Amino acid sequence: MSASREKKKRQEFTASGASDPKNSRAAEEAAVRRSNRLYSGIFIALAVVAVGLLVYNSGIIGRNQTAVTIDGEKYTVPQTAYYYQQAYQNFMNTYGGYASLFGLDTSKPLKDQAYSEDQSWDEFFKEQAVDNMRLVHAAKTAAKEEGIVLDGEELEAYNENLEAFKSAAAQQGYSYKAYLTAIYGPTMTPSIYEACSQDSFLASKYSSEYSEKNFVYSDEEIQAYYEENKNTYDLVDGGYVTVSGAPEAKTDAEGNAIEATEEEKEAAMAQAKETAQQILDAYNAGQDLESAATSVDDTASYNVSEELSYSSSTYGDWLFDESRRSGDAEILEGDSVYYVAVFNGRQRQEALDYNVRHILITAESLELAEGEEATEEQLTAKAQEILDSWDGTEDGFAALANENSKDPGSNTTGGLYENVPKGQMISEFQNWCYEPGRKAGDTGIVYNASTGAHIMYFVGYGDTQYWHYACENAMVNSAMNEWQQSLIDSVTAETDEGGMKSVG
Question: Is the domain of 337 the same as that of 398?
Fold first, then answer.
């Protein structure tokens, strides 16, 4: 594996993001999966967090008050607040508007909301913060013992994030110090914040270097992993129709639901099976699955695709059975439902990674009146204006990106993203890159309502297929999770009740 490609696989070390917020180990796994954009996410995210969301309201607290002690090293209230906000913001970045589904109301104090039967949301984020502090403490200690320092690419990344934070402060009408206070509380100072950030970046560097040395897998090992986990990385060309076998809902005179009898349930399932057989007969007679379904029962739901992913279900297990052969079609019985399943073929996800440059045009790119919102037409027109000024060379496009792009992840590198695997970018961006006939040097403009207008320049496809990338990434993630947990377990932490009351 090349050095440049290996760098793209470095793992963010300090985040506490969660695929399941009630599982701390899963939180670490979600953080590790953010592997392709080293050091960027959480720090910049903190720069744009809504000011006052978690602002301290208890007054000025002693800056030197201890909140956590890790292997004898004391961490103060503002230091702990740094990691607390990191844990909170990482959760919000992961779930955004879905936080309410987990019972979190961002308009109310976290201390007054139950995360579980015996823990508030405030306590949950404090727990996450302490775990991250243990992780960073152990890693930075090991880094110093091995003579690893923050320099080069990592130091540049740290400085860029610091400048992004200061820029966000200015945009919000705050001084740097006042912005820190608004986000972290009255005890936070620039020196404390920068020291915490440097510790996190140093821990990240140590983690990256450790991963590069110890979690490297041969093509044979990756192939073996794939063979053991085919369902995760394969796609099926096929589909299924769902025919409900639930009895028709009935109510009494007062509008109360009447539970169906066993005879009614059996009759409904029998009717569903008959309908499913008619759909299968129509399919076998030459109709496509969708037409067969609608011609028999326009209430039947269907799902047909050339790229069906595996799901553990009656139809999913059938479609991904190793014995399946092209042309197989069968009626399957589920819980109060019948499926008509059709199998056309199975393939490994072999889409190549790609290299692309882009220029992101947002509302900030336009001269808008106060209160005016940017429209798609305005953004794409601005994008076209910039593209029209392009000199036709890749270097010229890179210069335009550095000058005009609002993407902080690429507007200092000529808009370049390298070795991008399928599934990483927004659909409009990705679909443009994978359009049939796409070739090096192609340009275009795509629009996404959430991000803005993207001026595209296609550099070319890479040589790594998605299944290979995904398998390797999963193997590295698993190894990283185990190693990170061992680091956490290698240190002990004690919390000070008085100090922790001032955090959050």
Answer: no
